[in-house]
Design goal:
With about 270 residues, the protein is of the alpha/beta class. Helices cover about 50% and strands about 15% of the residues. The protein folds into two domains: about 5-170, Rossmann fold (3-Layer(aba) Sandwich), CATH 3.40.50.720; about 175-270, ProC C-terminal domain-like (ProC C-terminal domain-like fold).
Amino acid sequence: MDERILLIGFGNMGRALVRGWLDRGVEPSRLRVVDPADGARAAAADLGIVAGGDLAAASFDDGPPDIVLLAVKPAQLDAAVRVCKASVGTAPLYLSIAAGKPIASIAEVLGPRAAVVRAMPNTPAAVGRGMTVLTASERVDARQRAAADELMRAVGMTAWVSDESAMDAVTAVSGSGPAYVFLLIECLARAGAAAGLDPKLARTLATTTVAGAGAYAELSGEDPAVLRRNVTSPGGTTEAALGVLMADDGLAGLIERAVLAAADRSRELSGS
């Protein structure tokens, strides 16, 4: 990619994205970072990227940015967009990864002609195994859509939805989903220790088992229900455990209620 990319905010997700871009051959000279934190600017400088505390200190020598990545916290988004409008205008593609902030809240500041893509990446992007779902405003053209997709594919898989309201469920499943998996690891490790394992070994077994099973499910392409049945011998240990997990008050109902609660909260936060 040869677009000029301006990052507003350089936290964990912004840094993960930049590392992915650099690994794919994007030149540091095509990137600029704006962040008020000294540590964030130092991290950008370590990667060979010009960084400043404001837009004036992070401008490009050869023209305005082609893409503005909004990687700030949701509460900071409106202020960041207003500063960008005043300094770089509405012409660039605005790509927002601010959780829970709808396209309308950005377009309200920039105006109806702005091209805005909203993206929901998740934590595994930090290790290149992320999942990002994107949705676009009507002003986003095919070239801009392809650019946004390429940027997010640098840290994992991507998918698009045409109906932005689906982003609440996306947030509940993949955005918040890593926390559910971390809780599973935590509970599995604790249960292993309660069953007599050394706690350190129990945590290793839980972590590697979850990671390996996830990779196997992804690579096999099989329905998860088929994979579950394949490792469940009649009358065996796995069947005994699944009898608890799949009871009427078991895991399925808990996960469904959790996802619905997260989706409802996402709708509350976004005002949808």
